[in-house]
Amino acid sequence: MSDKKVSKPCHHCKSKSASAPTDTSKIHYEKFWLYRHCSSVQQRDRQAQKAGQLFSALLAMNVVFLGSAFISSMIFNKVAITLADVWILLSILKVLCLFWIIYYLMGTSQQPHAVLYRDSHAGTIWIRGSVLLFGSCSILLNVFQIGYSTILVHCKSRVEIVFPSIGILFICTQAYFLWHHSKDCIQVQHNFTRCGLMLTIATNLLLWLLAVTNDTLHMEIESQLREVERRFAGKAPSHPHWCNETTLCTCPNTTICKVFQKGYILLYPFNTEYCLVCCSVLYVMWKNVGRRISHHHIPHTKPKFKLQGVVFGPLLGTSAVIIGACVFMMYQIQVTSLVPSRQVFVIYYSYYIVLLPLMSVGAVIGTIIHALEKKELDTLKNPTRSLDVVLLMGAALGQIGMSYFSIVALVATDPRDLLNSLALSYSVLLIFQNITQNVFVIDGLHRRRTPPGKEEDTKEEQNREAYSQRRVSVLELGQEIRKASLSYIHTYSHLSWKRRVLREISFFLVLCNIILWVMPTFGAHPLFENGMERSFYGYSTWFVIVNFGLPLGVFYRMHSVGGLLEVYVTA
């Protein structure tokens, strides 16, 4: 795999050169030994690009399978493969990724004509902001883990200190790399860059998988300890299998140890989000390697986030956030007590049953307005938008899958019970809300951008030209201005009511998705803690379902916020 620099490309390639000031003589065309007999440079370049993507994807697939085998062996056979072995493998992968990122920053990107194009759709500010936010929380998580392991160094392995230390360096370097280079369409060292990006994606996926399984084990231990407490309190356990092993490595009764322990538990969910967000940004960069963007892809104006013209969306959304925060605090206080109240589950499900239909109705109205609009669909190639659609559809499967499992369990047991009927309604409404919101967001992302005020500015210029050409008296001029102003206001109101409604709906859905992201992220898991589905499927089976579906559901809410903000800005 090598690259070839062509000094005089054909006219076809010259028409595809885009972002000024770009000279086609600076373009590095790809070359691959399998396609060395292709007649044209462009055809050889396209085939070499596909071959490079295939080989780098195969590299990532093998790394993911290897890491998954290690993690699975650690779960099912803790004697042969321990958690320390998994950490050593991931540390090696992190170090390799660090070497490649540093080489990219100091070598590849510094070469002449390395970055001729930048994808304006990639690396939006809220995506890069999410990388910084979740990355900062992940760094704090590793700091707490180092502190906690240092206090218990007499019974902890040294790997438990080395692994998070390497993790801090990896997170900082990767966050800097994504913040500054997420828009790059690299034009040199194509295949080496693709392999480096795919290796980094595979490493983040394995870190996410380990975080999910570790969170599963952590929640299982916490729940089993609660069962032990109920046993001592004279309550019957909700499942027959609970831990009989004594804890040899317990946190001493000191404030600093409790702070490290609680901080680690609180920040743990952000690590899973950080890994998934980094994977999505890295995938777009991988798709953009060797990409040459035409001038049609370059927006003439960048839409900005403004709160002008929206009233009801922020008002209703803020109300939903405040009420949701109150429900969440009540839920946390009650569930963490020794005997959780049945009433708190009723309040929690009732909040969702009221909120989810409002969100669904808003999404349906927004989709109908999209259908009434005369905007053309944007059919230009856009890897970022394609990835957004795939992530929205894929992440929604987490909540939809858990909901269907819950529906089967509730219908098969006792659907007439109050709590069961509320949980059943919650699951059905959640499925409908996910589907309607996906349709609204995906349709909005495919609408062609129309700069706001374009039609109005054109009419105003025409009016000014007309007035400058006519010699009329002051009275006649005043009457003409008044008529033109009334006509302008009427025209503006007639043209922009759809945009105003779309903005109200988008902003309302943004705030609703934020509170629905916060609640499960910080520990509201009624699907596991109410015990209904757990008793139907069994403890271990339901735990696997929840802990693979729940992180996807949390990621779906966060990613929906980005998509809805895009719809809001471009409305």
From TrEMBL:
It comes from the Eukaryota. The keyword Hydrolase does not apply. GO terms for cellular component: plasma membrane. Keywords: Cell membrane, Hydrogen ion transport, Ion channel, Ion transport, Membrane, Transmembrane, Transmembrane helix, Transport. One of its GO terms (molecular function) is proton channel activity. The keyword Transmembrane applies. It is found in: Cell membrane. Pfam families: Otopetrin (PF03189). It is a multi-pass membrane protein. InterPro entries: Otopetrin. The chain crosses the membrane at residues 54-75, 87-105, 125-149, 161-179, 191-211, 265-286, 307-333, 345-369, 389-412, 424-445, 505-524, 536-556. Residues 1-21 are annotated as: Disordered. Its main location: membrane. Belongs to the otopetrin family. This is OTOP3 protein.
